[in-house]
Every structure is written in structure tokens, then in C-alpha cells.
């Protein structure tokens, strides 16, 4: 919420709020109390948004001042990793040497940063010391 104070009296001291710079019209402001709201979805790929907020008095001449509000967008972990295939099947020789790499799987995650990093684990299928 933006808050401005004007020490003048009467209309000269009454303050109204507006958005001077509003990227993609994603924000709105209550002109009476300065409450800022979202009007659309933010894109984490944009990183941040610069919103210029202006406070104006109702005097004649009308005086105003403004400031820049930086809104940073952080990614949430809302996408699960997805393998590039639903199932895999491979045939190898019984003579395959221990610890040899014989197959690769691949998954991707649409989240960014650490939320998009993937760790692979074998959760079942191993028997004995395999």
C-alpha cells in the first residue's frame, strides 16, 4: 500500500493515488487509500516489474510526487519433472561389466533455478547388490 501525506489544508491536502507506469497493465491502485493489487498473472521469466506510483493533491495548481516500486517475482515449485518417455526398456549382455554405463534417461522441469533441478534415483528393481 502506498502512503503519502500532504500537510496542506482542505483540497490542497487531499491525496489521490494513480499509476504513472504500469507494465502490461498488471497492477491497479485504489485512488483513495493507495492499496495496490494485481490485475493479471506475473511471469517469473520477466524477473521483476517497475511500477511508478504517483500521489497528487487536489489543489490548484495540482502538485504531485512519485516513486518507483520494484516488484520481484520468485518461481514456485509448481511443475513436476517429466521424463521424455513414459517407459524404457533395454537389453544388455550378461557379460556387461560392473559399473558400466549402458543407458541414459532424461527428464525436464519447467520451473527455474533450484526448483527446476532434477535428481535421479532408482526406487525399485534392484536385487541383491545390484
TrEMBL record:
Q: Please provide, alphabetically and separated by semicolons, the GO molecular function terms listed in this UniProt record.
A: calcium ion binding
Q: Give an example GO biological process.
A: homophilic cell adhesion via plasma membrane adhesion molecules
| InterPro entries found in the cross-reference section | Cadherin-domain_protein, Cadherin-like_dom, Cadherin-like_sf, Cadherin_CS
Q: What subcellular compartments does it reside in?
A: Membrane
The GO cellular component terms are: cell-cell junction; plasma membrane
Cadherin domain location, by residue? 4-83
Q: What main location does UniProt list?
A: membrane
Q: Does the keyword Membrane apply?
A: yes
Q: Which Pfam families match?
A: Cadherin
Q: Which UniProt keywords apply?
A: Calcium, Cell adhesion, Membrane, Repeat, Transmembrane, Transmembrane helix
PANTHER family, per database record: DESMOGLEIN FAMILY MEMBER (PTHR24025), NEURAL-CADHERIN (PTHR24025:SF31)
Q: What is this protein called?
A: FAT atypical cadherin 4
**Natural source organism:** Achalinus rufescens (Boulenger's odd-scaled snake)
Amino acid at each position: 500500500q502506498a502512503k503519502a501525506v500532504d500537510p496542506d489544508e482542505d483540497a490542497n491536502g487531499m491525496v489521490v493515488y494513480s499509476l504513472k507506469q504500469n507494465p502490461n497493465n498488471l497492477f491497479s491502485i485504489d485512488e483513495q487509500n493507495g492499496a495496490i493489487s494485481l490485475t493479471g498473472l506475473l511471469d517469473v521469466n520477466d524477473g521483476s516489474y517497475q511500477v511508478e506510483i504517483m500521489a497528487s493533491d487536489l489543489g490548484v495548481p495540482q502538485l504531485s510526487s512519485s516513486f518507483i516500486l520494484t516488484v520481484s517475482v520468485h518461481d514456485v515449485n509448481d511443475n513436476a519433472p517429466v521424463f521424455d518417455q513414459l517407459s524404457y526398456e533395454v537389453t544388455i549382455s550378461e557379460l556387461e561389466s560392473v559399473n558400466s554405463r549402458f543407458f541414459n534417461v532424461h527428464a525436464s522441469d519447467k520451473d527455474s533455478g533450484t526448483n527446476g533441478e532434477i535428481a535421479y534415483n532408482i526406487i525399485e528393481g534392484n536385487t541383491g547388490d545390484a
